[in-house]
Amino acid sequence: MAEQKTNSLLTNSSLYQEFLAEREEIYRHKWLKSEEAGHDVGFETALVDWTLNHRTRWKKEYYKTQKGA
């Protein structure tokens, strides 16, 4: 019972929801980069590229949509 409550708190936390949304964006970026390259670029390559080139803008938009929700 306590474990179930802990899992529920974790999955409902805003921090965890943000993590899931960010991870989804990184996987989307990986797919796009892999399509452009014609081969799988790998998660780490996509993660670094997304973090350096897109994360700041994505976070601003994410927080803006969360405040409006």
Short descriptors:
about 70 residues; mainly alpha; about 85% helix; about 0% strand
Protein described:
The model has no long low-confidence stretch (mean pLDDT 91). The radius of gyration is 15 Å and the shape is flat. By secondary structure, the protein is an all-alpha fold. Helix 2 packs across helix 3. It contains four helices and no strands.
Count of alpha and pi helical runs: 4
Specify the biggest β-sheet: none
What's the mean pLDDT score?
91
Q: What string gives the helices and strands in order?
A: HHHH
Question: What value does the Rg take, in angstroms?
Answer: 15 Å
What fraction of residues sit in β-strands?
under 5%
Give the helix/strand class: mainly alpha
Number of strands: 0
Ends distance: 31 Å
* Total domain count: 1
Shape: flat
What is the share of helical residues? over 70%
Low-confidence region ranges: none
SSE layout:
Blueprint: H1 2-12, H2 14-37, H3 43-53, H4 55-68
Briefly say what this structure is:
The protein is mainly alpha-helical and 69 residues long. It is built from 4 helices and no strands. The protein has helices at 2-12, 14-37, 43-53, 55-68.
